[in-house]
Write a structure and sequence with these properties.
By secondary structure, this protein is an alpha/beta fold. Helix content is 37%, strand content 21%. It has 16 helices and 22 strands. The strands form six sheets. Strands 14-15-16-13-12-18-19 form a seven-stranded mixed sheet, with helices on both faces. A six-stranded mixed sheet has the order 9-8-7-10-11-21, with helices on both faces. The chain has a three-stranded antiparallel sheet with strand order 5-6-22. Strand 12, helix 9 and strand 13 form a beta-alpha-beta unit. Helix 4 runs parallel beside helix 5. The longest helix is centred in the N-terminal third of the chain and has 18 residues. The mean pLDDT is 96. The structure holds nicotinamide-adenine-dinucleotide (NAD). The site of nicotinamide-adenine-dinucleotide (NAD) has 28 residues, from helix 7 and helix 8.
Length: 505
């Protein structure tokens, strides 16, 4: 982070969106947005001032007065248009995402596509926002309920899915009749900006969607502001826990989707070839920077003999700049690369075996990229730092156990409960695992079981705070307040049927 003014050099600046206008921040605090494959500075992102944060919230508060009464169909049609615009701009969105985030172009398209699916769902949300009606709850008395929008909602997003996760948030909130203030990751805000420009082009009125940039201070301001009614956060457990506590203390709704340590449990009866290939994709894809990455392989019984083959396959994966579509792109920053290296070193120091070392990988033409090759640490046990911490890089750790029960106990004892997968050909083992495991997303021969938006994303234990998840049915409950109306009309039964005869037309 620096305190130069953005105008001091020729790098473009990332604007704020306040009341439908893209404006240059007046802050003195800026941060570079850097291409992780080259270290080229792509843009400078401002850390918005308190006045700018307040202006964004005030604009959302004003817009809410009319947006909450905008017909459901009119709201939905904006998202029909937005999904079309996202499809038309897919190549450009993916290229921007790859440039600032590092992931491969194919992965970047996947990132946009998974968000696009949520936009499609937002275009169809009307039936999920319907209330209930009961006639004659007492004689001549009826009760009905409506699901009203809350007001101004806010979203705080992480660096690893800069298209999908903003699209988890603002389309659903806005389709439900709320207005929104989005705070994207300061590490890769450019594709998010492009998506927001498309949302405005699709017809989102001024003030309904606002974008501010920044870090801790801006996030705290969102948690404290009395006009923000709900906060959706996705990011690390440390920050998410802070956001949940601070927002809750201020009387807001909060949902925080946080860190992970996802175990892929491999039984010896699994299809070996498919399982090993899936472990590679889930462990090393997106350079291991997915919250649903399978970062722990649990080899059960005779499946432990598959380790040499797993390592040999991992060694064949290609590493390079995301735009060249290798198997793995760089990690997000130099700091992230250093962190991965230091965790691997600590793992070795604590007794893990370095089965595959990706630390000295070189990529032709990209001497400065934050590249880390596929790395495997085996013989890992709980208590080692590489087991206890989320590494968030292309490092697969391998734990060996004797039985499925031991594997289940291991997974359930981990503080995180984001995702898990079981590889087996036994339906009985799969059913047993599913019922006993305390994890939000469970895959059976599916390594990254992120649900489509007909369902909601979830998470148990340390991976999530707040009872309702993002997208799907649950998010409609999150972004609405139920109002119940109990009504009685005093009528004279004899005359009410004749009421028309008394009206002169
Ligand atoms: P992060 O927690 O560092 O940042 C997330 C957001 O919080 C960013 O917008 C950032 O500006 C803000 N922030 C950072 N430090 C802050 C502070 N001290 N106070 C207030 N706000 C702060 O997370 P990240 O590194 O961008 O993302 C990676 C993490 O996100 C991983 O832990 C990953 O597992 C998690 N993640 C979880 C899910 C899920 O659905 N469970 C999905 C994606 C990512």
């Amino acid at each position: 982070m620096t305190t130069q003014t953005a105008a001091a050099n020729n790098v473009p600046t990332v604007p704020l969106l306040i009341n439908g206008e893209w404006v240059e921040s007046q802050t003195t605090v800026w941060r570079d947005v850097v291409n992780p494959a080259t270290q080229e500075v792509l843009a400078r992102v401002p850390f918005a001032t308190p006045d700018e944060v307040n202006a964004a919230i005030a604009s959302a508060q004003r817009a809410f007065k009319t947006w909450r009464k905008t017909p459901i169909g009119a709201r939905a049609r904006i998202f029909l248009k937005l999904q079309q615009l996202i499809r038309e701009n897919m190549a450009d969105l993916a290229a921007t995402l790859t440039m600032e985030q590092g992931k491969t172009l194919l992965d970047a398209e996947g990132d946009v596509f998974r968000g696009l699916e949520v936009v499609e769902h937002a275009a169809n949300i009307g039936t999920l926002q319907m209330g209930e009606y009961a006639q004659n709850v007492a004689g001549g008395v009826d009760t009905y309920s409506v699901m009203q929008p809350l007001g101004v909602c806010a979203g705080i997003t992480p660096f690893n899915f800069p298209a999908m996760i903003p699209l988890w948030m603002f389309p659903m909130a806005i389709a439900c009749g709320n207005t929104f203030v989005l705070k994207p990751s300061e590490q890769d805000p450019l594709v998010t900006e492009k998506l927001v420009r498309l949302a405005l082009q699709a017809g989102i009125p001024a003030g309904v969607l606002n974008v501010i940039h920044g870090g801790e201070d801006v996030v705290n301001a969102l948690c404290d502001h009395p006009d923000i009614k709900a906060i959706s956060f996705v990011g690390s457990s440390k920050v998410g826990t802070h956001v949940y506590q601070r927002a809750s203390l201020n009387g807001k709704r909060a949902q925080c989707m946080m860190g992970a340590k996802n175990h892929a449990v491999v039984l010896p009866d699994a299809n070996k070839e498919q399982t090993l290939n899936q472990l590679l994709g889930a462990g090393f894809g997106a350079a291991g920077q997915r919250c649903m990455a399978a970062s722990v392989a649990v080899l059960v019984g005779a499946a432990r003999e598959w380790l040499p083959e797993l390592s040999a396959k991992a060694q064949t994966l290609t590493v390079g700049a995301g735009k060249d579509n290798p198997d793995l792109g760089p990690v997000i920053s130099c700091a992230a690369k250093e962190r991965v290296f230091s965790l691997v070193a600590k793992g070795i120091e604590q007794g893990a075996v370095l089965t595959l070392d990706g630390r000295d990988v070189k990529v032709d033409g990209y001497p400065n990229g934050n590249f880390v090759g596929p790395t495997i640490l085996s013989g890992v046990k709980p208590g080692m730092v590489v087991y206890d911490q989320e590494i968030f890089g292309p490092v697969l750790i391998v734990v060996e156990v004797d039985t499925l029960d031991e594997a289940i106990a291991l997974v359930n004892a981990n503080p995180n409960g984001n995702g898990t997968a079981l590889f087996t050909q036994s339906g009985a083992a799969a059913r047993y695992f599913q019922e006993e495991i305390d994890v939000g997303q469970v895959g059976i021969n599916v390594p990254i079981p992120v649900p489509v938006p007909l369902f909601s994303f979830t998470g148990s234990r340390g991976s999530k705070l707040g009872d309702l998840g993002p997208f799907g049915k649950q998010v409609v409950l999150f972004y609405t307040q139920t109002q119940t109306i109990t009504q009685r009309w005093f009528t004279d039964a004899a005359s009410v049927g004749k009421v028309n005869t008394t009206i002169s037309l």
